[in-house]
Amino acid sequence: MDDQGKPDSISAFDLMGGEAQVRALVDRFYDLMDLEPSYAHLRAVHGSNLLSARDKLFWFLCGWLGGPSHYIERFGHPRLRMRHMPFAIGVRERDQWLACMAQAMHELALPEPLQTRLQEGFFQTADWMRNLNGA
Asked: What is the C-alpha to C-alpha distance for residues 125 and 19, in angstroms, rounded to an integer?
């Protein structure tokens, strides 16, 4: 807290505008994945139905961005690498995920500094989840 009783830093969750904007981001991300041929490999990893993936990403991002811990309340620790092991995630899928999320953030007109901050965090997380050796 600063000397006026305000938090020292504002979470990315708050900068985004809370749950409604996180949901809008997730929905746009998955809509783009379905619409854009450039995300075809990423889309193929997700199977035929995206409803569960939409909810899980929304719940996860809320907490990851500094908001409510919806994902942890439902499933415990995210254990992202372990949970993604059944899926073939290589450099191509990682890069398509990052590009799709960047496009969704841009289309929702998130402030540039916030987009940059999130892209850096997304890259670290997405790169860590790769499970194909060198692919």
From this structure: 21
